[in-house]
Amino acid sequence: MAEHLRLGLNVDHVATLRNARGGIHPDPVEAARLAAAVGVDGVTAHLREDRRHIRDDDMRGLKDVGLPLNFEMAATDEMLGIAADVLPNACCLVPERREELTTEGGLSVHAAQNSLRPFVARLQDLGIRVSLFVDPEVRELEAARAVGADIVELHAGPYTDATGEARRAELVRLREAARTARTLGLECHAGHGLTFDTVEDVAAIGDIVELNIGHFIVGEAVFLGLETVLRRMRALMDAGRSRCP
Ligand code: PXP
User: Fold this and answer.
1) What is the Å distance from ligand 1's center to 96 Cα?
2) I need a labelling partner for 12 at 20 to 30 A (CA). Which of 54, 58, 103, 159 fits?
3) Does 1 reside within a domain?
4) Range of the domain at 212
């Protein structure tokens, strides 16, 4: 039996909508509370350097919801200080460029091993588990292991962006990377761009134990409501998982 597949709700774009009017509604913390009430397993938020969606006080509010909090951040001293204050369950280190619309690719762990190794250790010394957002490539997975990460989150964007045969090929890459991660002793998550149409096949990869999903869920909630969307996403994940040996 494959392990339970956790759903982490990324609430960044609840904050995007709030910030469009500069007020307090809709509140990402309220979204996390609703998620907790319907059985979602965790909450994720990306505190960007430019604070374009999530803000510092959101991180503190999200921690108080009581769900495991995954703090997405760039590997900077500023973010390390905030993580030390918030003390989330996990930090997911992502690359960040001010001019990008969203995270564009995985971290270059291989190229940045010397700076990442002590950064990972400083978070772990605070009792925080460390996840690295990486492309599904063996070299990056081995480097993640070498810098002492606990978790890798596989970048699912190339899979969700592709169609037809190319998408099937990307799914194979995810499956093989998840197997490699597991063999290396890394917990394996996946995220970015997942939708109702693309989640089931990823959920069928038994070596992946957590999916972090945000933009589609928040967008679809405009039409169906957040609770309905979360329940449907959960059902699709369960359907995918039931295909595991
Ligand atoms: N995981 C990581 C590391 C991300 O950067 C993002 C986007 O912020 C997500 C998951 C969620 O992606 P999406 O919002 O496209 O579902």
Assistant:
1) 12
2) 159
3) no
4) 6-241
